[in-house]
Design goal:
The chain is of the alpha+beta class. It has a single domain (2-128), classed as 60s Ribosomal Protein L30, Chain: A (2-Layer Sandwich). It has helices spanning 48-65, 86-97; strands at 2-5, 20-23, 27-35, 73-80, 103-108, 119-128. β4, α2 (86-97) and β5 (103-108) form a beta-alpha-beta unit. α1 runs parallel beside α2 (86-97). The radius of gyration is 15 Å and the shape is globular.
Amino acid sequence: MHQRIVPGNVAAPAGAYSHGISTHGPSTCLHVAGQIGVTPEGRLLEGFEAQADQAWKNLVAVLQAAGMDASHLVKVTTYLTRAADLPRLNAIRSMYLGSARPASTLVVVAALAHPDWCFEVEATAFRQD
C-alpha cells in the first residue's frame, strides 16, 4: 500500500496533495503519459475547462484500464499555459481526486507541444498486489 508523508518540520501542503508518498510490498506501478483535452474520437476540445476536464477523464480511463482508480495515484504533474486558470483547475481536479492526496507538482509553462493545448496532466499510480 502507500502512505502519505507529511513531515511536521515542513509547512503543511498548500492544497490537495501530499509532500510525499511511500509505497511498500509486492505491487504494480503505472506511469501515465501526459493526458490532454482530446476526446476518444480524437477531437481537441476548446477552452481551458473543457480541456482540463477531458484530460482528467482520460487519466481516469487509463487508471481504470489498469484496474486502478484515483486512490492509487502517488504522483501527479500538471502543466498549465496560464497561471490565471489555477482556480478553475482546483475545482476540476477535486472532482477527480476525491479524498486522494497524491504528491503533486504544478508547472506553468509558456507553451505545450501543440499551440492549441492549454492543459496537460501526467501521473504515477501504485497498487499493492
